[in-house]
Amino acid sequence: MSKLLKSLIPASLKRILKNKLKKRQQTRIYRLPPVNWVGLPLATLEIVRRTKQSPALIEVPLSKCRGLRAMAFPCGSDSFHPFITALRYKDNEILRDYFKLVQPSSVGELLEIYRKTPVAVMPALNYVYPWDGDPSDDIYQYRKKFISKENKSHGGSGNYEGWHHFGPVSENKVALEFQRLEHIYGNIKENGYVRSDKPDGDIAGILLFRDNDYCAVISKGHHRIAALAALGVDEIPLRIGVNRRSYVDRADFMKWPGVVSSAFLPEEALKIFDRIFEGRQPAFCEAWKDYCGNRRKLAVDGD
Asked: Strand, coil or helix: what is 234?
């Protein structure tokens, strides 16, 4: 394109075209098969350094995985993770009770932001991590649309009936989630865990780094990882993407988009990071933890 033609294009249109080209390039890279590092004697930090330009497949202990995003449930077999717990006891009622007990009313309650800000009072479904950007109604609408589509693809109504990360949800959603868990659990138990290089062929996540340690926050494959944990698996192959949000270093907190925009104070952003990194749940989850503790006690007494 000549300089004359470029000068005739409005700046706003240039930005739109640039963003579309960038998104198309990311989609093309996302569809590439991952570079498989499983079984190779390299530290995770070294793998990250070598493969930032393409998806990577690494082996991660379940103890380092955090499930259901901002809920940050550890994914070990003894976790309070509701999917793992429901499979452990093979009980649909456990999921129903989880969604009744765990219902954050706002972004502030979910992310434990105690200032009364426009961000804090938004519905919980609006949330994003401070390293991703600002909570917004656009996020809310996107998630509702995505979840409705996902429900339909798994035999649901195609309507929005709640998110599987926290309540409230409909009775149909509870039944659908448990059905998916049982199906995946049974399939893996009978046939073993089979991954592929297709875009949806792996459990996927992002890596959070703190000093020389890391954890993996699961972004795709929540049902698969729960089934593997319930079956007693200790490590999983995990696919890591290539965008700027796939690798998050605590040391870079002042550069995080949500901090730069002032949607989050630096100390709030670090607190959110540390809670997720350490696999701790928000304060409103205490009732759920008590429920799980009582359930375990009943199981032991029953033996």
From this structure: coil
The pLDDT tens digits for 145-164 are 999 999 888 888 888 999 99
Q: Are strands 65-67 and 213-220 parallel, antiparallel or unpaired?
A: parallel
* Among the listed residues 82, 141, 131, 140, the one whose alpha carbon sits nearest the alpha carbon of residue 270: 131
Question: How crowded is residue 300: how many other Cβ atoms within 10 Å of its Cβ?
Answer: 8
SS3 235: strand
Long-range Cβ pairs for the range 21-30 (8 Å, 24+)? 26/242, 26/243, 29/53, 29/54, 29/55, 29/242, 30/55, 30/199, 30/241, 30/242
235-240/56-61 β-pairing = antiparallel
Backbone angles phi, psi at 156, to 5 degrees: -85, -170
Q: Which residues of 71-90 are buried (b: 16+ CB within 10 A; e: fewer)?
A: bbbbbbbebbbbbbbbbbee
Rounded Cα gap, residues 48 and 67, in angstroms: 21
- Cβ–Cβ under 8 Å, residues 141 and 274: no
Sequence-ordered strand ranges (E) for the chain: 35-36, 56-61, 65-67, 73-74, 203-210, 213-220, 235-240, 247-249
Residue 196: name the closest of 221, 214, 217 by CA: 221
Helix, strand, coil percentages, rounded to 5, for the chain: 50, 15, 35
Domain regions of the chain by residue span: 35-302
DSSP 31-96: TSPPEE-TT-S--HHHHHHH-TTS-EEEEEEGGGEEESGGG-EE-STT---HHHHHHHHT-HHHHH
Residue 303 has which token pair? 């033996």
What mean pLDDT do residues 237-251 have? 89
**The predicted structure's pLDDT at residue 242:** 78
Q: Is the pLDDT of residue 6 over 90?
A: no
The continuous run of DSSP H or E covering 221 comes out as: none
pLDDT computed for residue 37 by the predictor? 83
